[in-house]
TrEMBL record:
GO terms for cellular component: cytosol. Pathway: Purine metabolism; GMP biosynthesis; GMP from XMP (L-Gln route): step 1/1. Homodimer. The active site is at residues 78, 165, 167. One of its GO terms (molecular function) is ATP binding. It is an enzyme of class 6 (ligase). Keywords: ATP-binding, Glutamine amidotransferase, GMP biosynthesis, Ligase, Nucleotide-binding, Purine biosynthesis. The gene is guaA. Pfam families: GATase, GMP_synt_C, NAD_synthase. ATP binds at residues 219-225. This is GMP synthase [glutamine-hydrolyzing]. Residues 192-382 form the GMPS ATP-PPase domain. Its EC number is 6.3.5.2.
């Protein structure tokens, strides 16, 4: 395994992800980790992460200098590089300007990390301090305009340092650089697989949870599903999943979730059919934020009630993934919508700890684990679905009748997109019941009925999105099927607004 010593850098998990992508197992630990513990764990290499501090500040995180004496190869990145220089007698200086962004860097041929890489390349820099003088015994292996020591190494002691970030994708040759370190210098073979992540995580849950009781909120979304299944494989029936069906899921979705988790995986699943309860609370409510709040609060309430029936539980399992961990760190962005995540923390359930087995994974890695565990493709590749469900895709008051109309129209749209082979190309697509009625003519008669809007977007992060260029012929097919098959709809429109200025959902 590789040890990533974390000095508080924002990219520590990204380093881990790159290492995993090169099929090498790694662990992230605090810079405070004891040297004896590192020695006895048999790591093949150590990577120092970046960090927000300067080595000269009082609060600078500093690891034990003995780590350089273990004979284990060390790669320092950014702050990690500066710290290596500082601890081994080199000089770190503060520049007046921050070097930030894509930066041309010149690799010297002698650098062991730069074997089989062209000499001039672009790297991602983000620093104010820099190594001005390399420690004795070190050789400079790369330079940039602002950095006399953009990289350095001491081959005899197997110590390597990079001022730039090889883990960030803007560093064009970052992957090869990491590969040279892991394969050539540390001697890793690259034979670790995501399957091992599942096995190791299940074992870890077994060891930490033991025979204690765990509950989780299951929604059928990929994150909570994979998290719950890992816990189930570890502790079996000591995990209880509560599936609050608020009646605003897509067509047949509730039954599908129940089938997969209860029948296929034999999990301890409690399904609460609470549509009536939710609709009673939503009666007469039309304001979008108010709808979101009501659904979010009611969800927690139903969950708490069910949890209470179980009695004392020790842990709450959540499908938190790495981007959630990072995003929840920023507190000052404007609130556009109050998001509600199924599985959000209830305040009235008595548990002592959280089990979050996916905290270190990115979405595509979660999907890989899900497939490994045998979760059906359609759940693993399920497109994002908002916690408040169809409740925010029906403009105006939500009723059972409107839900049924929207479910049918939405199911037709999704079916046709899948038949056309576009289901993985368009990142999110759904129908909206617009709340507009319009006049039409069908047969010889006048109609006055509902308008369905179709929405399809392409996006990589859901923060910005473009409307999907769905072929006209496909739109035509969906439109005529909806109008023929769904009573009470006589008009279909396609939403051609990007985000911004619109959002992906209509409410
Ligand atoms: P907007 O509409 O803000 O949506 O552009 C961005 C992405 O977030 C999803 N979304 C939600 N997801 N709980 C969620 O878990 C919510 O309350 C929620 N509201 C919106 C939306 O479907 C899109 O993928």
């Amino acid at each position: 395994a590789i040890l990533i010593l974390d000095f508080g850098g924002q990219y520590s998990q990204l380093i881990a992800r790159r290492v995993r992508d090169l099929n090498v197992y790694c662990e992230i630990k605090s810079y405070k980790t004891n040297v004896e513990q590192i020695r006895s764990s048999g790591y093949k290499g150590i990577i120092f992460s970046g960090g927000p501090n300067s080595v000269y500040t009082e609060i600078a995180p500093v690891c034990d200098k003995q780590v350089f004496e273990l004979g284990i190869p060390v790669l320092g990145i950014c702050y990690g590089a500066q710290l290596m220089s500082y601890l081994l007698g080199g000089k770190v200086s503060s520049s007046k300007v921050r070097e930030y962004g894509k930066t041309p860097v010149n690799f010297l041929e002698s650098g062991a990390l730069f074997q089989n890489i062209e000499k001039d390349s672009v790297c991602w820099m983000s620093h104010t301090d820099y190594i001005s003088v390399a420690p004795e015994g070190f050789q400079i292996t790369a330079v940039s305009d602002a950095c006399p020591v953009a990289a350095m190494e001491n081959g005899a002691r197997k110590l390597y340092a990079l001022q730039f970030h090889p883990e960030v994708e803007h560093t064009v040759r970052g992957n090869e650089i990491l590969k040279n370190f892991l394969y050539n210098i540390c001697g890793c073979k690259g034979d670790w697989q995501m399957a091992s992540f599942a096995a190791e995580t299940i074992q870890h849950i077994k060891d930490t949870v033991g025979d204690k009781k765990v509950i989780c909120a299951l929604s059928g979304g990929v994150d909570s599903s994979v998290a719950a299944l890992l816990v189930h494989k570890a502790i079996g029936k000591n995990l209880t999943c509560i599936f609050v069906d608020h009646g605003m899921l897509r067509k047949n979705e509730g039954d599908d979730v129940e089938n997969v988790f209860r029948k296929q995986f034999d999990m301890n699943l409690i399904r609460v059919n609470a549509q009536e309860r939710f609709l009673a609370k939503l009666k007469g409510v039309t304001e979008p934020e108010q709808k979101r709040k009501i659904i979010g609060e009611e969800f927690i309430r139903v969950f708490e009630e069910e949890a209470k029936k179980i009695g004392h539980v020790d842990y709450l399992c959540q499908g938190t993934i790495y981007p959630d961990v990072v995003e929840s760190g920023t507190g000052d962005a404007a609130v556009i919508k109050s998001h509600h995540n199924v599985g959000g923390l209830p305040d009235d359930v008595d548990f002592t700890g959280l089990v979050e087995p996916l905290r270190s994974l990115f979405k595509d890695e979660v999907r890989r684990v899900g497939l490994e565990l045998g979760i059906p493709e359609h759940l693993v590749w399920r497109q994002p679905f908002p916690g408040p469900g169809l409740g925010i895709r029906i403009m105006g008051e939500v009723t059972a009748e409107k839900l049924a109309i929207l479910q049918d129209a939405d199911a037709i749209f999704r079916e046709e997109i899948a038949l056309a082979g576009l289901d993985k190309k368009i990142n999110q697509y759904f129908a909206v019941l617009t709340g507009i009625k319009s006049v039409g003519v069908m047969g010889d008669g006048r109609t006055y009925s509902n308008t369905i809007a179709l929405r399809g977007v392409t996006t990589s992060d859901f923060m910005t999105a473009d409307w999907a260029r769905i072929p006209y012929d496909l739109l035509e097919k969906v439109s005529s099927r909806i109008i023929n098959e769904v009573k009470q709809v006589n008009r279909v429109v396609y939403d051609i607004t990007s985000k911004p200025p619109a959002t992906i959902e209509w409410e």
